[in-house]
Write a structure and sequence with these properties.
By secondary structure, the chain is mostly helical. 87% of the residues lie in helices and 0% in strands. It has four helices and no strands. α2 runs antiparallel to α3 and α2 runs parallel beside α4. The chain is globular and about 40 Å long. It starts with a helix and ends with a helix.
Length: 67
């Protein structure tokens, strides 16, 4: 997709969604931090969804650590 569409911000959003759904936490959090300022400003509605996914991942990590 990157080769075909280049540096398309929607690819960054979709990548974050896939990483969150597949529970690839380390990669998700790294990409989240890199893309935050660009995507939060330009795509606020999509970014809210990504932040919600981040919150859910954090909760899952805390639950796993307790168990």
């Amino acid at each position: 997709s990157r080769e075909k569409f280049g540096d398309n911000p929607w690819l960054d959003i979709k990548e974050l969604e896939v990483l969150a759904c597949s529970r690839q936490c380390d990669t998700f959090f790294a990409r989240f931090n890199v893309n935050k300022s660009k995507l939060e400003q330009d795509y606020p509605e999509a970014w809210k969804k990504i932040e919600k996914m981040r919150t859910e991942l954090c909760q899952d990590i805390k639950l796993s650590a307790v168990q």
